[in-house]
């Protein structure tokens, strides 16, 4: 089996995982509609790799043009890296993974701003950095509270008035500025 990070952090496979996050179930055709810029043959190849690795599971079959079409969902806990994968990663691994992550983020943002006249305020879109002066304990408290705030929203189903939004967080320690620099 390929390295878990290489499997999960491929840009197209990451988009498939994001499309199925939150308990969504989709057929390859539905995934193709959601990821309209991905060629069908490429999408099917990535779905197959994720299924073979146990990241995706078949949860249903629907008739489509006379043949059953599989419906996929994320396997329990399969959409993220295990802590041991992160702990065992080299500096080069982290730099490569972060580059893939940022490339995917840039791709998502590009699709948003090129998709018409973006209205950042109405769409709730934005980006910024906020410096925080925190002890390790305060950081743990902040992280826990953020998780508690977000948790009730993670299982919301698509519905009238709801639009899928991606919340991305990056938390980095920043070295203090050198005196006299």
Describe this structure in words.
The chain is mainly alpha-helical. It has a domain of 122 residues: Arc Repressor Mutant, subunit A (Orthogonal Bundle). The chain contains eight helices and two strands. The protein has a two-stranded antiparallel ribbon with strand order 1-2. Helix 2 packs across helix 6. The longest helix is centred in the middle third of the chain and has 24 residues. The protein is globular, with a radius of gyration of 19 Å. The protein starts with a helix and ends in a 27-residue tail after the last helix. The relative contact order is 0.11.
What is the fourth-level CATH superfamily of the domain at 4-125? Winged helix-like DNA-binding domain superfamily/Winged helix DNA-binding domain
Query: What structural category characterises the helix and strand content?
Result: mainly alpha
The largest sheet has its strands arranged as 1-2
Mean pLDDT, to the nearest integer, reads 85
Low-pLDDT segments: none
What is the percentage of strand-forming residues? Answer: 5-15%
Task: Bin the helical content.
Answer: 40-55%
Separation of the first and last Cα atoms: 49 Å
Approximate shape = globular
Q: In oligomeric terms, what are we looking at?
A: single chain
- The CATH level-2 architecture of the domain at 4-125 is identified as Orthogonal Bundle
Q: What is the radius of gyration computed over CA atoms, rounded to a whole number of angstroms?
A: 19 Å
Summarize the structure.
Helix content is 48%, strand content 9%.
What labels describe this entry?
mainly alpha; two-stranded antiparallel ribbon; Arc Repressor Mutant, subunit A; globular; 9% strand; 48% helix; 181 residues
């Amino acid at each position: 089996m390929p390295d878990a990070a290489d499997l999960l952090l491929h840009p197209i496979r990451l988009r498939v995982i994001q499309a199925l996050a939150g308990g969504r179930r989709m057929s390859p055709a539905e995934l193709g509609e959601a990821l309209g810029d991905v060629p069908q043959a490429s999408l099917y190849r990535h779905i197959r790799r994720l299924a073979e690795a146990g990241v995706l599971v078949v949860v249903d079959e629907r008739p489509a043009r006379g043949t059953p079409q599989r419906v996929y969902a994320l396997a329990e806990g399969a959409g993220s890296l295990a802590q041991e994968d992160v702990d065992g990663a080299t500096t080069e691994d982290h730099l490569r993974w972060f580059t893939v992550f940022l490339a995917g983020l840039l791709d998502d943002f590009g699709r948003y701003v090129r998709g018409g006249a973006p209205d950042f305020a109405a769409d709730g879109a934005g980006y910024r950095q906020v410096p925080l002066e925190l002890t390790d304990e305060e950081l743990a408290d902040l992280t826990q509270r953020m998780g508690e705030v977000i948790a009730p929203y993670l299982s919301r189903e698509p519905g009238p008035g709801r639009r899928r939004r991606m919340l991305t967080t990056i938390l980095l320690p920043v070295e203090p500025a050198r005196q006299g620099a």
